[in-house]
Amino acid sequence: MTDDDVDADLRQCQDLMTKAYACQPSFNPLSADDLRRVTAIVRAPWTEGGPTMIRITEQYVGNYSTRIRIHYPDNTQILPALIYIHGGGWTIFSLDTHDRLMREYAGRAKIA
CA 78 to CA 74: how far, in whole Å? Predict the structure, then answer.
């Protein structure tokens, strides 16, 4: 694949992410807490805005410390659900770093 094969919007997003990460310390010596902080800073521009949900709930899965967030785009009683497990090795990303993306999916696809 060459640069010409990459969509212009995707290339712009990649360039912005590359510039944002370049302003941060190298990942190699960073602790997990520092990695989370850096990724939250870099992803901040992509968490703002997006669709407004009629309701958002947070719950824990069973007796585990795993939090889930459910986005309801409208008042429909029964909605199909998307279960999205984000990347980051359960270390650097969070519900917050992916919140807008999940609201975009919920709003556009009319899913919870």
Answer: 10
Rounded to an integer, what distance in angstroms lies between the CA atom of residue 18 and that of residue 10?
12
pLDDT digits (tens, 9 = 90+) for 11-57: 787 788 778 777 766 656 788 888 888 888 888 888 889 999 999 99
Average pLDDT over every residue of 81-103: 84
| Residue 98 burial class via C-beta count within 10 angstroms: exposed 0-12, middle 13-18, buried 19 and up | buried
Six-digit token string for 90: 């359960």
CA nearest neighbour of 53 among 73, 79, 35: 73
Structure tokens at 42: 């870099």
What is the span of the domain harbouring residue 83? 3-109
76 pLDDT above the threshold of 80: yes
